[in-house]
């Protein structure tokens, strides 16, 4: 043995090495990853997310050991945020019966929620009365509506006009109550503008411009066709929070400000409902409110921040997703119990993340190059004074059930897209190539002829044998597999040269 060691030492040289260079050699360091037992709650008690990059630990998320159930998700467009959110909600519902309310800015969750049998409310066709009380007193609701308008309209720069809007709303509540003999009937913005018009006529002194200004600001919200917030609410606010999965599609509203106004108003109802139900006391995780790209309402110290501060107490969680992390309020960003960072290549966003999460340059480079569906996760443990950032190779989740149709020889074969892509991953096809195939399928509306599909697989590095096997698995009879393979072969031949397929009878 000494002899062979001597011979080995002949090949070795001593070399001075900086500790940073040593640390970059993965052999010498334990990756910054929480111990496996922390990442794997008891069976059936966590939401399966994916395997960690080091040692392939199957990571399941659970709020019970974390400081709070709130989740932040950041990453550039197409990096996999929404895919993660959908898988997360599906599994949280299966594990804890968690209900979800998605405030959907761009309508991207609608097909998925419909397919999952959830409830979709499309604002625009549907209306939301801004003066609905949602369980609050008129005074509380007045203050909220004025605050929302202050945040989202020019009202912030005009205190006198704001005062008149406030008085208008108070009067609308009072007059409606009087007109209906003490029975509370919910007024609308039409009542407010009507009262302001009367005040304008009566008031000929110095305040007239302010009253006119207040009227001018509210009138566009009451015009026919744009009166989404001035008609009576056309859906049940209680049902929003009590059905399993609800998506409020805000994409039908004509401007970012109106979408934000609706988002804020709905969050105010959520917050009120949260308080009226009282402390959680063993209720687990009742409701997850999802805000995807709701940066405008996540900036100020308003309702999302309040939900973050009080949510755990009431078993409510907030899930905020954004392409630009700095768009989120620092209170939200630094207080979420779990943060998932998908690919982020813009240096501004990376600077922000590195400054806030304090990770080394190596991790920064990793985050900038993450493949689609992979992410870094940072968890804040409730009773452990540490929060490690670790990598997840791929979020293994449920996308929309989508079908791929392969055509050829006058026949069609239908395959489930996710199963096909997962099968290719198992064959060793890289994430980048899987994403490339996914993009091809999307471009062709998920319908391809068998030869083109096989050619795409070949370009992704699959051997002829693997392609043949893949076609057989898809249900093609041997005869059509052979004809597809010869079609694939003849694509490479100069024009005019033909290939014959020889099919042997069994
Ligand atoms: N973990 C994953 N496994 C399989 N497919 C994925 C995964 N993550 C993302 N994808 C696919 O990548 C595409 C883009 O993902 P996704 O819509 O989640 O991006 P995004 O980050 O929400 O983008 P945007 O900010 O533009 O909304 C989708 O077609 C999705 O099916
Ligand atoms: Mg998205």
Task: Summarize the structure in words.
The protein is of the alpha/beta class and 506 residues long. It has three domains: 36-126 and 236-392, P-loop containing nucleotide triphosphate hydrolases (Rossmann fold, 3-Layer(aba) Sandwich), CATH 3.40.50; 138-222, no CATH class; 403-490, no CATH class. Helix content is 44%, strand content 14%. The protein contains 20 helices and 14 strands. Helix 12 (303-314) links the parallel strand 7 and strand 8. Helix 6 runs antiparallel to helix 7, helix 11 (256-277) packs parallel to helix 12 and helix 19 (464-473) packs antiparallel against helix 20 (478-490). Residues 81-82, 108, 292 line the site of magnesium ion.
Briefly characterize the structure.
This protein is an alpha/beta fold. It has 3 domains: 36-126 and 236-392, P-loop containing nucleotide triphosphate hydrolases (Rossmann fold, 3-Layer(aba) Sandwich), CATH 3.40.50.300; 138-222, no CATH class; 403-490, no CATH class.
Query: In total, how many beta strands?
Result: 14
Radius of gyration: 29 Å
Ligands present: adenosine-5'-triphosphate, magnesium ion
Q: Which sequence of strands runs across the widest sheet?
A: 5-6-4-7-8-3-9-10-11
């Amino acid at each position: 043995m000494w002899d062979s060691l001597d011979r080995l030492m002949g090949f070795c040289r001593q070399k001075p090495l900086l500790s940073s260079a040593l640390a970059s050699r993965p052999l010498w360091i334990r990756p910054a990853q929480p111990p496996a037992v922390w990442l794997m709650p008891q069976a059936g008690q966590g939401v399966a997310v994916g395997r960690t990059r080091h040692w392939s630990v199957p990571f399941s998320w659970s709020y019970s050991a974390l400081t709070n159930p709130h989740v932040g998700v950041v990453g550039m467009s197409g990096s996999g945020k929404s895919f993660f959110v959908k898988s997360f909600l599906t599994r949280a519902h299966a594990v804890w019966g968690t209900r979800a309310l998605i405030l959907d800015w761009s309508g991207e969750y609608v097909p998925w929620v419909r397919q999952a049998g959830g409830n979709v409310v499309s604002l625009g066709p549907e209306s939301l009365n801004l003066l609905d009380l949602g369980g609050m007193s008129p005074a509380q609701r007045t203050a909220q509506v004025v605050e929302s308008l202050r945040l989202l309209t020019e009202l912030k720069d005009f205190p006198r006009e704001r005062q008149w809007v406030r008085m208008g709303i108070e009067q609308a509540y009072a007059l409606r109550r009087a007109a209906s003999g003490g029975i509370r009937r919910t007024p609308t913005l039409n009542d407010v503008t009507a009262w302001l018009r009367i005040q304008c006529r009566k008031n000929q002194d110095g305040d007239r411009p302010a009253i006119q200004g207040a009227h001018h600001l509210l009138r566009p919200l009451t015009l026919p066709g744009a009166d989404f917030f001035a008609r009576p609410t056309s859906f049940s606010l209680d049902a929003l929070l009590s059905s399993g999965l609800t998506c409020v599609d805000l994409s039908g509203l004509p401007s970012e400000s109106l979408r934000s106004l609706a988002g804020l108003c709905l969050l105010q109802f959520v917050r009120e409902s949260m308080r009226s139900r009282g402390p959680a006391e063993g209720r687990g995780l009742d409701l997850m409110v999802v805000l995807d790209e709701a940066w405008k309402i996540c900036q100020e110290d308003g309702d999302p921040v309040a939900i973050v501060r009080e949510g755990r107490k009431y078993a409510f969680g907030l899930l905020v997703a954004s392409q630009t992390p700095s768009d989120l309020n620092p209170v939200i960003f630094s207080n979420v119990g779990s943060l998932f960072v998908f690919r982020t290549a813009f240096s501004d966003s990376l600077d922000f993340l590195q400054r806030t999460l304090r990770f080394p340059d190596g991790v920064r480079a990793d985050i900038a190059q993450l493949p689609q569906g992979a992410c870094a996760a940072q968890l804040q443990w409730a009773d452990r004074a540490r929060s490690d950032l670790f990598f997840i190779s791929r979020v293994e989740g449920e996308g929309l059930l989508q079908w791929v149709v392969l055509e050829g020889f006058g026949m069609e074969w239908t395959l489930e897209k996710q199963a096909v892509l997962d099968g290719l991953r198992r064959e060793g096809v890289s994430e980048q190539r899987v994403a490339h195939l996914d993009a091809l399928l999307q471009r062709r509306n998920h319908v391809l002829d068998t030869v083109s599909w096989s050619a795409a697989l070949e370009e992704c590095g699959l051997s002829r044998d693997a392609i043949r096997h893949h076609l057989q698995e898809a249900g093609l009879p041997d005869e059509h597999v052979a004809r597809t393979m010869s079609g694939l072969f003849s694509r490479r031949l100069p024009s005019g040269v033909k290939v014959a397929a020889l099919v042997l009878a069994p």
